[in-house]
Amino acid sequence: MFSDYTQGIMIIACINMIAVLGISVLTGFTRLFSFGNAGFMSIGAYTSALLTAKMGMPFIPAILVGILFAGIAAYLLGSLTLKLKGDYFLITTLGFGEMVRVLFNYIPITGGARGLSGIPKYTTLPIAVICLVLAVIIAWTLIHSKYGRNFTAIREQEIAAESVGIDITRSKKMAFVFSAMFAGWAGALYAHNLMFLSPMMFNLAKSAELTITVVIGGLGSLTGSIFGSLVVTLLPEIFRSLANYRMFLYGLAVVLIIILRPAGLFGYREFSIRKSIAFVKAAPGTITALLKGKSSKDKMEARK
Amino acid sequence: MTPVLEIKNVTKNFGGVRAIDDFSVKIEPGKIHGLIGPNGAGKTTIFNNITGILTPCNGTIIFDEKEITGKKPHEIAQYGIGRTFQNIRLFSNLSVLQNVILACSMDAQYNLIDAFIRSPRYRRMEKQISEKAMSLLESVGLDGNCDEIASKLPYGHQRKLEIARAIALNPKLILLDEPAAGMNADESAELVGFILEIKERHEFTVLMIEHHMDVVTNLCDYVTVLNFGKTIASGTPAEVKKNEHVIEAYLGGAEGC
Ligand SMILES: Nc1ncnc2c1ncn2[C@@H]1O[C@H](COP(=O)(O)OP(=O)(O)OP(=O)(O)O)[C@@H](O)[C@H]1O
Ligand SMILES: [Mg+2]
After folding, report:
1. Homologous superfamily of B5-80+170-251 in CATH?
2. Is the per-residue pLDDT at A285 higher than 70?
3. How many domains, in total, are found in chain A?
4. Residue owning the nearest CA to atom 3 of ligand 1
5. Are residues A24 and A92 in the same domain?
6. Which residues contact A3 (CB under 8 A, 6 or more apart)?
7. pLDDT (tens digit per residue) in A115-168
8. What is the H or E stretch that residue A237 is in?
9. Chain B CB contacts of A161 below 8 Å
């Protein structure tokens, strides 16, 4: 149906979206920042790849073990660090990500810096799509249950959250483990798509990219994160010549968004078809109103 | 009657500053107890010690016959102490209804699996929570503002929303930190009626910090006056107002507001 090239890009897009959904729950809903999720991705990737390539385990159990290991690592790290204030926690995730990368560089079984090859190509487009759909359903359900509400309460007002009976340390740990498991899931799919792993793939830039994607898409919006992820994965493919400037452009986008629209493109709102239709219908009216000089600029002027 | 809350010889130091000095008090059930004193007397610090945001250096706090000294804030909330904050702390970007729903997590006794399979238990509890939140908003007169963003509400409504959120815990005791702050005489008079009404309806005990003396006089059954972290007087509002230590503390403290 699709060319190999198109399929390849779609698989990558699905994988990125799963990892980004994890960060969306962590950063968009709980307001915790992690710059170590590439580390959890690599744990999922290496664990599952070693299981399939060296021990002949089937794909699905290998993915599950990969997810589990990433989750356990996050649980242990979170137990030690989640009581710290936000920025200190961030630094520890950063340190963790780099530590894992260096570790995979030196453990003989991972092939070290030369990389791990001979991983079977199990990640097909249907599998990637099914995983993404599942991931969206899981994230959506979590966010719309009391667990997601507890995350949101922490994001909005930590002290008030505690004062209404929410165990904030436990909720934060849950969000952190969740994001790590999604990263591990993405990592496992990634390994069996590329068929080759090297620790360099999971560096700080990769972690930063995940967070940047969520900021671009909009904090507190799952659909925003999916949309952001699509933009960040597809734009460099469409504008090949710009590929070298990718990180530069991401950086620029984030600076502009933080200044102009701090809540991101979708900020706190989910995409809804009904509302979009209503918006399009209302658009002509809005435009005429603007032309009549009732622009927001005038309002700003008036406020001064 | 056994007191709802008993604070025994609590001391709290911040570095060299002794914010609370060997403070003791008993709060009788069903009463409205006022805590007054000049700025910096240590009133909010007492609230923070009761609710677990701070841990006392010395002394014990007993709530509902259980010792709660040094417990975590969420545990104390779960035991049944709700509170509001001097500088309002709402879930600002969320709707009025969401603010109350977020405070109902204790009513949601379901687990992750219930949530994923949307079990009958999950659906029943979620429905109960929305209904409870709506009826609480009705009870404080904010049911017309459900979908408004909390931070966009007028100041007086924000105060009421914070109180509604505290009541969502089904608390035995509510701590109000300067509920009438920033209100004019009419607004404070309305607040007095409001507090009496919801207290009757939801049957809780109140410990409140307040600077407006008319509010204190009209609401409180009993008043404790604090200065430099120590009790300098206590009694009914009328008794306390006549007390010479109190007059001195307020006049001596430059502007006692
Ligand atoms: N976290 C803290 N760290 C250091 N000092 C503090 C802290 N909290 C309060 N204090 C000090 O403790 C003293 C009592 O403060 P507190 O906020 O309890 O006063 P208050 O009676 O509530 O006053 P107000 O009427 O102004 O609200 C003050 O001197 C204050 O500076
Ligand atoms: Mg105070």
Report:
1. P-loop containing nucleotide triphosphate hydrolases (3.40.50.300)
2. no
3. 2
4. B14
5. yes
6. none
7. 899 999 999 999 999 999 999 999 999 999 999 999 999 999 999 999 999 999
8. helix A222-238
9. 102
